[in-house]
Amino acid sequence: MLVSPVGTLFGVPAGQDLSASSLVVVGVPFDMGYHPTRVGARSGPAHVRAHSALVAEHLDGFGTDLLRELGVIDAGDVDVLPGDVGKSFPAIEAAVSHILAAGAVPLTLGGDGAVTLPQLRALKRHRDGFAVLHFDAHTDAYEGIYPYEYNNANTFVHAVTEGLIDPAASLHVGMRDTDHRGRPGIVGVARDLGYEVVTMDEFTAMGVPALVERIRARFAGVPVYLCWDMDVFDPSAAPGVVTPSWGGITVREGLSILRGLRGLDFAAFDVNTVSPPHDHAGLTGSLAAQVAMECVFLLDACRPQPG
């Protein structure tokens, strides 16, 4: 007898009834579509789901059905049209808003970095006062890079100009786009907007324990929007991303950071930038599924403990 649907994240039930769910998975198969060589993040949600079954097997020894306890369901994909911001952004915002209105936490699978902006718009309507914790090889606070009002490189510029977040309360980690002569480069643009940025050089100097301590102190008591761009990992571990950048974090570092954040109040999870056409042997899809599983653990750690 079939016990779980085919094609959902971790084999959780598919459905639209959010009444008993703490965590709702939704795919956002959207990318801007204008990169000259690496278009493919629109296929990311299906790819991560396909590689999530093996990750889910690791729950077998826990002695509890954590996914069932949390009522995790997969609500499918948002109806988007890649490259069409006018159609897609309102649809993404509406889907995430629907989840938040039901009292659940969204776990979205992108999609390129552009999918974050409409999610921030939705969260602003439901949980004002949240802060963004953004892991990425890039700040996504670029200006003048592309001749388009909205793109996957300027999400966090719009987030400030629209008043969606307080940049001083948010944190960007993992950036490798500093100038080779030590000038501030694009990181300087983000800092000029008011963001705090921890570059890879700075992270390497401080190490995982110090970074985790810094994050925990900064976000204690604040609802957190966790935005995890898969290119924060080094391309040797995650080759199938939109814009790979050498010198990123290792898998062990990434998982240690995520596990060090248990106990913070997470309002939304956004795992994005998996590009299946560039993913050797499904490495990035599998790793993204593991990141998504770590998000499940993060949400579980938010629950009141018995006794």
Walk me through what this model shows:
- GO terms for molecular function: agmatinase activity; metal ion binding.
- The protein has helices at about 45-50, 55, 65-70, 85-100, 115-125, 155-160, 185-190, 200-220, 250-260, 285-300, and strands at about 25-30, 75, 105-110, 130-135, 170-175, 195-200, 225-230, 265-270.
- The protein has an eight-stranded parallel beta sheet with strand order 2-1-3-8-7-4-5-6, with helices on both faces.
- It starts with about 20 loop residues before the first strand and ends in a 5-residue tail after the last helix.
- It has a single domain (about 10-300), classed as Ureohydrolase domain (Arginase, Chain A, 3-Layer(aba) Sandwich).
- It is built from ten helices and eight strands.
- Helix 4 packs parallel to helix 5 and helix 8 (about 200-220) packs parallel to helix 9.
- By secondary structure, it is α/β, with parallel strands linked by helices.
| Individual helix count | 10
Strand order of the biggest β-sheet: 2-1-3-8-7-4-5-6
Q: Major beta sheet, specifics?
A: 8 strands, parallel
Structural class: alpha/beta
Separation of the first and last Cα atoms? 37 Å
List the defining traits of the structure above:
single chain; alpha/beta; Arginase, Chain A; 35% helix; globular
